[in-house]
Amino acid sequence: MANKHEEQHFKSSDLVTDIVIGMSDGLTVPFALAAGLSGAVSTTGIVITAGLAEIAAGAIAMGLGGYLAGRTEVDHYHSEQKREEYEVEHLPEVEKQEVRDVFAEMGLSKDTQDLIADEMSKDKEKWIDFMMKYELGLDKPDPKRARNSAFNIGLSYVVGGLVPLTPYFFVQHPFDGLKFSAAITVVCLFIFGFFKAKVTGQKPLAGAIKVAVIGSIAAAAAFFIAKLFSA
């Protein structure tokens, strides 16, 4: 009986990428802000108000950044596509030679290169798609990518930002809120770092520790700086 081989590769989707971007900053920035304010103010109301304002502003800014990145990707693709359309129409022999060059790099014979180039030139649409992918290395982007990216990143930022802020709703003194916030957020940073590393093919435990340590250092720095200046 032949051994059955299953390839286990994870292809990071656009959704996962957006969640990682939004959640990463959402957990860290509001955590550091809340920690800093906890070292400078005496009421949780100020921490909550400032924290919610930061989450709203951060989600909008991050979402807008994701939207602009998605639009740039689409605009760049269409710009290059128009250039390829022109070259296929007006410089067909040059483009056919570029097809041959692609397959020459793969080790195919000259006769095979010529055959493929001639066959491909019969369908200009597929010819252009081939040149976009294999000459320029560009995959056709999802036209809804910009909108979806803005929503996914913004929502992930809000979800991540509410984690360190939530304990402050249930206590009266900011320092008490900070203790609960730190405990919950560090655990969430560890879990998030673990899955982030697993998704990106890194060592999960090392990734989890790195994300948790970075978030903790940022919060600690904000707390002690605020404490220093408030004194």
How do the helices and strands follow one another from N- to C-terminus?
HHHHHHHH
Strand percent estimate = under 5%
Instruction: Note the overall shape.
Output: elongated
On the 0 to 100 scale, the average pLDDT is 84
Structure annotation, total helices: 8
Overview of the molecule:
By secondary structure, this protein is an all-alpha fold. Helix content is 79%, strand content 0%. It is built from eight helices and no strands.
Descriptive tags:
single chain, 8 helices, 231 residues, mainly alpha, 0% strand
Outline the secondary-structure elements:
Layout: H1 14-38, H2 44-90, H3 92-105, H4 110-120, H5 124-135, H6 145-165, H7 174-199, H8 204-230
Report a brief summary of the structure.
The chain has eight helices and no strands. With 231 residues, it is mostly helical. Helix 2 (44-90) packs across helix 3 (92-105), helix 2 (44-90) packs across helix 5 and helix 3 (92-105) crosses helix 4 (110-120).
